[in-house]
Design a protein that fits this description.
Length: about 500
């Protein structure tokens, strides 16, 4: 390649990985794909070769550790045909090492390492492949027995492919190198892709990918969650909000209840996030659904991510309060997704949100609840960072977001295990209070970055008449204790009528 010439990229066959690589891999280079057994290396390697077939290239799979039938089983599980490309295996004892032998099936542990490498080179000379997968280096490491000899043979392979129009993917299962990482291999290869499989205390195993290095090319650094599903690896590139800005107007969004919008001085602004917090049963979800229902009535697409409550229960409860969500689901305006926290990674959740916003043009999202979202995290300390990036992305897209944050306990001092209120643009506080021997509900807005807001406490009622917000209640005692008591006049209180 001439100095200053643009780098020519080739697709890996995996859309998510191409996004992480910002286009693909520089062609005609040697790459290392490493990971423990079960991490998904073989599946990704097959995707890499199948992309070559799709482009009319001739690919070659060199296997020292698996038989053709084992590879075929992997391919069939994804609905692929292994016969699409050449497979060169070292597994049959019937092979003969005589000169001029045309056999491509050899017994690896009876060969010297140098002869093994020469046979691979001969097969490459014969087939002239455009893409090569070499699986796996751990077998070569065992054949070499001596680390210096092993490294010399890897260097010889690199030099052999250097003058060819071939992109090579070396696979290492990290089982025969002490602590797992082979730093010398990292230095020899043009790029290193690491797959990890993490076993959690509860729930499905989590898998993540990282680009350790890639010479001369920009890529999305950090960990990227992925799943292995029929059809290959679903890789979810780490969300970077700054890369996804869309122009929008910051107009106010109304709920259809003027008194409720009045708390925000007209309603939440587009591109903002509203945190609704309070004890269980105060109406947090219903307040969010009121805004969502009004958005659907205006013809705007909206989505609810339901971590805690069953969808059927949610629809029944909303209908009892005069919110017919089913008609908007049938019309395609509203989508409610039931989320199983034990089966979901943060990266996959962010990818689902992006699809709703970019494919369905969703303009309003409800996440119910943050405690459920916390359960989907492998480490709790990542919650604030990942949620902050997700909310920044939604803000850049002009989406109105409602976060439901249940507080611990029903009465008395309230607390939450999520210190996330600072990332929200507006915070709505709901409380129970006592007046004349009855338990009532109060609503107030604590902050609103989008503009002015009321600083008073109003009564909230949610019943068959829908969501109602009463007059300002000025005479309270013990507001900051968690269960305020109203000591004012009876007249401002909302009664059945």
């Amino acid at each position: 390649m001439q100095r200053g010439a643009p780098v020519s990229l080739i697709s890996t066959g995996n859309q998510g990985l191409d996004l992480v690589l910002r286009g693909g891999l520089p062609e005609n280079r040697l790459y290392l794909l490493e990971g423990a057994p079960g991490a998904g290396k073989t599946t990704l390697a097959l995707q890499f070769l199948r992309e070559g077939v799709r482009r009319g290239e001739r690919p070659l799979y060199v296997t020292l550790s698996e038989t053709r039938e084992e590879l075929r089983a992997v391919a069939v599980s994804h609905g692929w045909d292994l016969d699409e490309f050449d497979v060169f295996e070292f597994s049959s004892i019937e092979s003969v090492l005589g000169a001029g032998s045309d056999q491509s099936i050899l017994h690896s542990w009876e060969l010297e390492l140098g002869e093994t490498v020469r046979l691979v080179q001969a097969e490459v000379e014969r087939t002239q492949p455009k893409r090569v997968v070499f699986d796996s280096l751990s077998e070569m490491r065992l054949l070499a027995q001596d680390p210096l000899r092993y490294r010399r043979q890897i260097l010889a392979l690199k030099q052999f492919f250097a003058g060819r129009d071939t992109t090579v993917l070396l696979i290492d299962d990290m089982t025969g190198n002490g602590d797992g990482r082979d730093t010398h291999l990292h230095s020899l290869c043009h790029g290193v892709i690491t797959l990890e499989r993490l076993t959690l205390t509860f729930g499905a195993a989590r898998r993540r990918l990282q680009i350790q290095k890639l010479r001369g090319v920009d890529f999305v650094a950090g960990f990227h969650d992925f799943n292995i599903r029929k059809g290959g690896l679903d890789i979810y590139p780490r969300l970077i909000a700054a890369d996804h800005h869309t122009p929008f107007t910051g107009d106010l969004v109304q709920s259809g209840v003027p008194e409720l919008d009045g708390l925000f001085n007209g309603g939440p602004m587009r591109g903002t996030c509203t945190l609704i917090t309070g004890p269980a049963g105060t109406g947090k979800t219903t307040i969010a659904l009121q805004y969502l229902y009004a958005a659907c009535e205006r013809g705007e697409a909206a989505t609810v991510y339901q971590f805690d409550e069953r969808i059927g229960t949610l629809l029944t409860r909303a209908s009892a309060f005069g919110l017919d969500l089913q008609k908007h689901i049938d019309a395609g305006t509203l989508r409610i997704e039931q989320i199983d926290p034990a089966e979901l990674s943060p990266g996959e959740f962010a990818a689902r949100v992006r699809r709703e916003v970019e494919a369905r043009q969703a303009q309003m999202l409800v996440i119910d609840s943050l405690n459920g979202y916390l359960s989907s995290m492998p480490e709790e300390q990542l919650l604030i960072l990942q949620m902050h990036e997700l909310l920044s992305y939604l803000g850049q897209q002009g989406v109105v977001t409602f976060l439901i944050n249940p507080q611990q306990g029903l009465v008395g001092s309230m607390a939450t295990n999520l210190n996330i209120s600072y990332v929200a643009d507006a915070v709505v506080l709901l409380r129970f209070f006592e007046a004349e021997g009855r338990i009532r509900k109060a609503i107030s807005v604590l902050k609103n970055r989008g503009g002015r807001h009321e600083d008073v406490i109003r009564e909230l009622r949610i019943d068959s008449q829908g969501v109602r917000v009463g007059e300002a209640l000025k005479q309270f005692r013990g507001v900051l204790t968690g269960t305020p008591e109203y000591t004012g006049e009876r007249a401002p209180l909302m009664e059945d009528r």
